[in-house]
Amino acid sequence: MSEIAIEASGLGRAFGDLWAVRGLELQVRRGEIFGLVGPDGAGKTTTMRMLTGILAASEGTATVAGFPIQGGDEEIKARISYMSQRFGLYGDLTVEENLHFYADLYEVPRRERVALEERLLGFSNLTPFRKRLARNLSGGMKQKLGLACALIHKPEILFLLACRPDAPWPTHPMRHAAKSQAGHGRAVAGAGNGAAARGARGAGRRARLEPRQPVRRHAARVCRRCSRSGSGSARAG
To answer: Are 120 and 151 in contact (CB under 8 A)?
Structure first.
């Protein structure tokens, strides 16, 4: 198994005449936490969507979990999890029913489910609330449940996206989870806005995206930004 979890070369995406991302060079190793930060319109979400196989690239290449994003999207989706601040929970299901549902979606073998679900409930401190409806959970507990559901199929790579303008990356439960998952050999890639840049300090390597022109929100370039643990290996021309 390669030590490189995510690698991009010359990756770009255009929307009409506007380039959201262009010339992206990126490398993330297994067991590493990597933060992609920048203001709204810098291309963070576009980058994450390309890497997760949701959005086709206009140019360049990238591999995720050893598979190319062009043509390998189904293999990639089986090996990753993508979690945004707007977690996809079902409010009329209980905590454990949500876990059962996602286990069904990911076709987790039934012989593995009980032990895996118990471990995730314990990891997220949700065991006492397993019978509570998801809609009755606090915001932090919903986030923990969303993470547990994202990890039910034991993904190789975890993508985290901070959507709210005021949300740091990662928030406290997510920061703890990111460090824990990296410690288990998973790569953790996260994206957030300006507030996220402050929250990402100490989380691992990070790179910053900036809008190329203020009036063209979708055009972006990547600037190197160093953290204490090393320089971010993402750049764009």
So the answer is: yes
User: What does the pLDDT look like over 76-110, one tens digit per residue?
Assistant: 988 999 887 666 789 999 999 999 999 999 999 99
Which strands sit side by side in the sheet containing 80-84, from one edge to the other? 80-84, 157-161, 187-192, 33-37, 205-213, 216-223
Ramachandran area for residue 23 (φ above 0: left; ψ -120 to 50: alpha; else beta):
left
C-beta separation of 171 from 143 below 8 A: yes
- Residues 124 and 113: their CA atoms lie apart, in Å, by 16
Span 25-40, pLDDT tens digits: 999 998 888 888 788 8
Do 52 and 76 meet the contact criterion of CB atoms below 8 Å apart? Answer: yes
Dihedral angle, C-alpha 229, 231, 233, 236, nearest 10 °: 150
Please tell me whether the peptide bond between 211 and the residue prior to it is cis, using omega within 30 degrees of 0.
no
Residues near 15 by beta carbon (within 8 Å), at least 6 away in sequence = 218
CA gap 211, 223 in Å, rounded:
10
Please check whether residue 3 is in contact with residue 204, taking contact to mean a CB–CB distance below 8 angstroms: no
Q: Tell me which residue of 194, 226, 199 sits closest to 210, measured CA to CA.
A: 194
120 Cβ contact list (under 8 Å, min separation 6):
99, 148, 151, 152
